[in-house]
Each structure stands twice: as structure tokens, then as C-alpha cells.
Amino acid sequence: MSLLLITAASFLGIILGKLLFKKWVNHLTIYCLIMGGLIFFYELKLLPYVDIIPLAWFFIVSSFLSFLFGILTIVSARNLGSKSEIDSEKSIITMPIFADDGKALKYSILFFSFIGFFVAFQRWWVLIHMFGSIPAVLVNAGIIYRLNVNGEIKDFIPILPNFVYVAVFLVGIYTAYKRRFTFLTFLPFISIIIKELTYFGRGEILFSLMEFLFSFLLFRHLLNNESSKKFKFSKKNAIIASTILIIFLGVSASLIRVTRGSYENFTGGSSQLKQLKGNFIISPSIYLYLSCDVGVFSKYLERDEENTKFGQNSFLIGYDFLSKLGILKKISAFQKGYFIPMWANTGTYMRELHADFGIAGLFLGPYLIGLLITWFWFKFYEQKNLIVFAFLVYFYLIVGFSFLVMVTRLNQWYISLFIIIIYLPFLEKMAIRRKSLNLLKE
User: Fold this and answer.
1) Residue 36: CB partners within 8 Å, gap ≥ 6?
2) What are 82-140's pLDDT values in tens digits?
3) What pLDDT, on a 0 to 100 scale, did the predictor assign at position 84?
4) How does 179-200 read in b/e, with b if 16+ C-beta sit within 10 Å?
5) 418: CB partners within 8 A, 6+ apart
6) Average pLDDT in the 290-309 region?
7) Which of 207, 202, 213 is nearest to 162 (CA)?
8) Within 13 Å and on the Cβ side, how many CA atoms surround 427?
9) What is the reported pTM?
């Protein structure tokens, strides 16, 4: 019965999202797909998961309704009040960033991607120096992963790894504008994967994939409304390239999993799940990653034994900064795990909101996220402001990661967003300058 209710509620939320935003890709639809899918997979019980306690069910429903009410607050305010005027005179092709037909944008993507390659190769140089050879690095993947977890392998310049996410954000815009996937689309991801093979983790692959998809899809919405020029996207190119990108990233993540030696023999797993044992891409551990978090959230509430400082998870970057100054003791980037009956330590964004702000966090947090992301949505599509677009994409990342963690606990969420906001005005001026120089040459 629970599976039918979850499916029905998710379906209704998806339809409501389409009615409110006139697009299938919107934050309400994505939230329903992600959280509904997470709970659906958990309730399939392909692993002998513990039952979700009633309090957890109450908070799951309450968080969704708070998110929905945040959305409806902005939608209602717009319907009751005076809507902002859409800048119809500002065509997409007259936006400063496209003054030179995207050439400055292209060079910016190359610049930030090459920084990503520099970081990746620097980390490989460090690991080869430590272990002697590339095969030795791969053999010691488990050891290297633990060293990275403990922060014992330092980056050349700590902030530098975040620059590649600027390239990911910009390449989403560029790909949408050029109406086709090219090698440039894949370039930032190649550097990220090379770097992730030195961490033997997969979090940054997921972060970059979501950032690109949201940047690309949300900017496509804007282009689809353009009246002065038709930005028809090649569907064949999109299908082929998207398939290649997802397979490429999926295989890379699976390679990291296999190299690190992930344990696949889950006691009590269903016969269907056991058949996937040893599968390179779809494996029992993948099912665990896609389903366990709501169980961890339930067990976290049931145990009620964590003592978390105010905002410790949501604003972890601030606590890290204070620890570097010696004001506070360093807080681990990894959370306490729970046995459900497999060990897992990520419990959806609800766990962190509750740990940071108590019960109020589960009501006020989703409400503010829904309210702000909806405000950014209408603000961007009416004014075509790229800084607003950056906030929109990064708030979409919060929704995208809601099944896993509160993504603001990751330093790259703050740092890469800050770099993007600082760089965008410079990029627009560079594009305008290039156009002026081209006119002078003519």
C-alpha cells in the first residue's frame, strides 16, 4: 500500500509542478522525483531495511508540504500583486555574454577546465611520489581514500579545485546556446574524473553532473522562449551526447567503486538484488546508495543521540574556517553512521536540517528553499540576469542532493558559487570588448 501512496503522491506533485511552472523541468517536479524515488526504492525492501518510524514519516510529509508552501507563497504573491515586467526588449542574442557569439564564454570554459587538469595532474604527481607508480596508487585505493578522508593529502592551492565547477556551469550555458553537444561539453568532466581517481570518491562527479544538467536545462527554458531567433536543439545530438556523458560518468564512478573494493555481499538481500552482485555498473551497493538515506534519517531520529552545534552541517564551511583560526575544534566532514542493517551515514537533507536547527529546521528550512528558488526562477526568466541564474542553479543543487545530504555542507557549493558571481561581470565585459575590437578591425 505504501508503494502505491508514494507513487500517487509523487505523480500528483510532478503534475502540479508542470501546472505551476509550465515546464516539466522545475524544482517541484525534481523534488518529487528524487525524494519520491528514494522512498519508493527503500520501501521495495530489496535489502532487509528497518521500517521507517512514524515520526520520520511525519517529518518527510511535513518537509514536502513546507517546500510546497514556500513555492505557493511566491506564486500566490505574483497572482495577487503586480508581476514584474518581462524585459521583452532584451533578446537572448543581445545579452552581454553573447556579444561576441559566445567566444569569450568558450575561452573561459577552456581556462577553468585547464585549471581543473592542473589540479588533477598535481594530485597524481603527489600520489605517484608517495606510492611509486600509477599501478601502486590503484592497488592502494582504500588507503588513499582514508588518507583523503582524514585530510592528510593536501592540494597545491586549497581553493583551486573549485575553479573547474565554474567551467561546468558555463559549459551548460554554452551548450544550450550553441544548440549541440561538442567535445568542449565533456572537457570539464574529464578533468574532474581524473582528479576523482586520486580521491577514490564519487561525490564530485555527482555534483558536477547535476550542476551541468541544471545549468543546461534551465538555460534551455530561456532559449525556448526566444522570439527573435529560434534556438532549435538537435535532438539526435542531445540523445547521443547525453547517453555518452551519463555512461562515461557512470562507468567512471563504477571504476572507482571497484578499485576501492566496495563490499557487495549484503546479507538478507532479495534474490533479485543478489543477481546483480558483481555487475560493473548496476550493483547491490548502487541500490544501497539510491535507497538507504531515508532509513538513516529514521534511525537518526529513533536514536536521538547526536549533539550538533547550531548550523554545523548547513554551514560547515564556516566551522572549518574557525577551526583553521584555532577558535573551534575541527569538525569531521563525515557524519555518524547507522546500522539499518547495513552501515550508512547519509540521511537526506532532512537529517542535517533537524540536527542543525531542531524541529523548526524541518519546517522553516524547506519553506525557505522553496520560496527562494521560486523567486530566483521568476526573477531570472523575467530579467535574464546571469547572477540570479547562478543562484537558481545552485539552489537547484540543494534540491538535487536532497535525497543524500544538505549540499551546502560541501565547501565547493559556496566557493564555486562565489567565484562564478565574481567572474560573470568580468566575462560580460570581456565579450563586449571582443565585439568592439572585431568591429574596429572591420
Assistant:
1) 6, 7, 9, 10, 13
2) 555 555 456 677 788 988 888 999 999 999 999 999 999 998 888 888 888 888 887 77
3) 53
4) eebeebbbbbbbbbbbbbbbbb
5) none
6) 90
7) 207
8) 27
9) 0.90
